[in-house]
Amino acid sequence: MSARIIDGKAIAAGLRAELKEKVEAFGKTGRTPGLAVVLVGNDPASAVYVRAKARQTVDAGMQSFEHRLPEVVSQDQLMRLVETLNDDFAVDGILVQLPLPPHIDATALLSAVDPAKDVDGFHPINAGRLATGDTRALSPCTPLGCIHLLKSVEPDLTGAHAVVLGRSNIVGKPLAQLLLGENCTVTIAHSRTRDIADLCRTADVVVAAAGQPEMVRGDWIKRGALVIDVGINRIARDGGYRLVGDVAFDEVCDRAGAITPVPGGVGPMTIAYLLQNTLKAARQRSG
Ligand code: GUN
């Protein structure tokens, strides 16, 4: 049996088309949602993401504001920029692209973003709202995308045992909260978890967000399980470079019921949900 491939690229395109119509309807109230992106330094991967975000923001009918700052920018300068964006009426969403240079205190900076404009969902207020089931929460985009992809295959996840591999604040922890909200039984596994392969074999849903290339092997997966691969790892292979996920795709395909590819799975969903969060923030700010 070969797994159904979940086409994140097509699903994200559909979401963006729906969103564009909603943005147009919102525009009739006299305002266009605006997203500000802050990029520090010259990390090539971050520059690619930021360009894609800006293009898709404009394509969805929203305003894009880009702020590029040199690697040597100070904490104070960044804090002042965030305060300016917090006070700017036209800005509904603020995203500070990660990673930040090591001299910047990212926690302090992300906590300075107005929670009402925190479209990444990284502010402690939004993490708390997500954990308490408050529908005003702006939740992190990659986990929202993962849930959407799972529900595209299985609309009711009630009672499923979901194993999340990885405990980051950006993916693992918020994803566990969202899966709980879908009535799953959730286990978070991480680098110190014992017998991780045996644990995965008990899962109906496996979400891999561990940052370890091809860590999840075919014999870790129960037949028919749903597998979501959040990993994006650039590895040297066959004299060149290849992008691989945290899942050994070909092996897992033989056992899973459905699986996301890398690229073209979770990645496109993250930006689609960033745009959704920007519209949600704009609506909530409009009262
Ligand atoms: N860098 C990689 N992924 C993300 C993300 O989801 N948000 C931000 N702000 N930076 C990132």
From TrEMBL:
Q: Which CDD domains match?
A: NAD_bind_m-THF_DH_Cyclohyd
Pathway per its UniProt entry is:
One-carbon metabolism; tetrahydrofolate interconversion
For molecular function, the Gene Ontology terms on record are: methenyltetrahydrofolate cyclohydrolase activity; methylenetetrahydrofolate dehydrogenase (NADP+) activity
Which GO CC terms are listed, alphabetically?
cytosol
Residue stretches making up the Tetrahydrofolate dehydrogenase/cyclohydrolase catalytic domain = 6-120
What's any GO biological process attached to this entry?
Answer: tetrahydrofolate interconversion
Q: Which residues bind NADP(+)?
A: 166-168, 232
- Enzymatic reactions: (6R)-5,10-methenyltetrahydrofolate + H2O = (6R)-10-formyltetrahydrofolate + H(+); (6R)-5,10-methylene-5,6,7,8-tetrahydrofolate + NADP(+) = (6R)-5,10-methenyltetrahydrofolate + NADPH
Q: Which UniProt keywords apply?
A: Amino-acid biosynthesis, Histidine biosynthesis, Hydrolase, Methionine biosynthesis, Multifunctional enzyme, NADP, One-carbon metabolism, Oxidoreductase, Plasmid, Purine biosynthesis
Return the EC number: 1.5.1.5, 3.5.4.9
Recorded hits in SUPFAM superfamilies, A to Z, give:
Aminoacid dehydrogenase-like, N-terminal domain (SSF53223), NAD(P)-binding Rossmann-fold domains (SSF51735)
Every Tetrahydrofolate dehydrogenase/cyclohydrolase NAD(P)-binding domain range: 140-285
Entries under InterPro entries matching the protein: Aminoacid_DH-like_N_sf (IPR046346), NAD(P)-bd_dom_sf (IPR036291), THF_DH/CycHdrlase (IPR000672), THF_DH/CycHdrlase_cat_dom (IPR020630), THF_DH/CycHdrlase_CS (IPR020867), THF_DH/CycHdrlase_NAD-bd_dom (IPR020631)
**What family name appears in the similarity comment?**
Belongs to the tetrahydrofolate dehydrogenase/cyclohydrolase family.
The role this protein plays is: Catalyzes the oxidation of 5,10-methylenetetrahydrofolate to 5,10-methenyltetrahydrofolate and then the hydrolysis of 5,10-methenyltetrahydrofolate to 10-formyltetrahydrofolate.
Which HAMAP family does this chain map to? THF_DHG_CYH
Looking up PANTHER family in the UniProt record yields: C-1-TETRAHYDROFOLATE SYNTHASE, CYTOPLASMIC, C-1-TETRAHYDROFOLATE SYNTHASE, CYTOPLASMIC-RELATED
Quaternary structure and interacting proteins, as annotated: Homodimer.
Looking up NCBIfam families in the UniProt record yields:
PRK10792.1, PRK14186.1, PRK14188.1
Q: What is this protein called?
A: Bifunctional protein FolD
**Which species does the entry assign this protein to?**
Bosea vaviloviae
The organism's taxonomic lineage, starting at the top: Bacteria, Pseudomonadati, Pseudomonadota, Alphaproteobacteria, Hyphomicrobiales
